[in-house]
Amino acid sequence: MHKSERLFQLVNLLKGRRLAVTAKSLAAHFSVSERTIYRDIQDLQSSGVPIEGEAGIGYVIADYPLPPMMFSYDELTALLLGSKMVSAWTDPELSAHAKSAIAKIEAVLPAHLKQQHEHSPYLVSSFKHGPQQQSFSAKLRAAIETQRCVTLDYKDALQQHSQRVIEPLGLVYWGGKWTLIAFCQLRSDYREFRLDRITAINKNELTYAVSPDKNLNHYVELVKAKYAEEIAQHQGQAPDKSGQ
To answer: The WYL domain covers which part of the protein (predicted)?
Structure first.
């Protein structure tokens, strides 16, 4: 384990404990010598980490907000990949925050991690996520956060146009397209609307409230239950090839 990663894990370990942890226990946890732990503690204290304690008694971290120190390569890959997805696939405001986060992460990458990151096998494309969808995403996110209804002008797969007053509950990315999950006041039920088929979004003054049987998590549970039922039915109808 690289020393920088060990220091990061050491801080996290101490932050998660209420009682002092001895150098002997820490040395066993990281498979290093107690002398190495003493040096690590001194290095962290010198850098401003509020570690209290002494040899033979143990160490704790004072109740003090600590900034993130460093991440492993796999953690950085996950963070950067997620930030790039947000940057490419969401609305302009979230995209700007994601780009700012990416810049901050890349600015403090150690040389060996920066080199690995430059050769990452992952690429996030913004193809098919144009300005109109980004604008719709921003309007819908604002409506969801304030629990305000909106009026959608929508074109379905058959190119038929309709207008619906809906209660937006959440935005789901299925891979390739964004879908708005909403409660349709016309149908009094959940409905899904693809963002690339929305032609206009208009605000109105109506508000709505979520409830145990009308919210995004409830919708997801219904979808899971329906999917499980379809799988069970399919397996029950599958031909018996055992010969019995």
So the answer is: 138-201
